[in-house]
Task: inverse folding
């Protein structure tokens, strides 16, 4: 059985909700990622911040990224998957909620992230096509 832990990108890091968006952008640059999970003061997932969120939701709106907190950008119900979940559960969650990145949690700690690139590397062409159809369909 292939699990979330088998296909995830290990070593993901939290971005504390109190950090500013300019700090988030620096972390993304340093980690070479396009998204960071946002954590509250108890290290509980409260959202995911993308580079697009920073550009469209802050910069393009005329706001100063050094003044906007990551937690202010967290919207909706955060989704995550247990490290031991079967890959079919991963796909189902990502398809059902039309999400492209999924934090992987083990013992209440962030251990990795699953992105579209991870799916493409580890799944069959048919599985990837089904995922893309569901996530990108209008």
Result:
């Amino acid at each position: 059985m292939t699990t979330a832990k088998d296909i995830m990108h290990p070593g993901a890091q939290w971005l504390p909700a109190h950090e500013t968006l300019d700090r988030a952008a620096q972390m993304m640059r340093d980690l070479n990622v396009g998204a960071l999970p946002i954590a509250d003061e108890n290290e509980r997932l409260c959202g995911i911040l993308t580079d697009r969120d920073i550009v469209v939701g802050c910069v393009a709106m005329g706001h100063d990224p050094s003044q906007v907190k990551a937690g202010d950008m967290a919207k909706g119900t955060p989704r995550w998957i247990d490290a031991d979940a079967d890959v079919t559960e991963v796909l189902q969650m990502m398809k059902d909620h039309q999400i492209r990145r999924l934090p992987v949690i083990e013992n209440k700690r962030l251990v990795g992230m699953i992105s579209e690139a991870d799916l493409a590397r580890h799944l069959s062409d048919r599985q990837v096509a089904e995922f893309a159809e569901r996530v990108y369909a209008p």
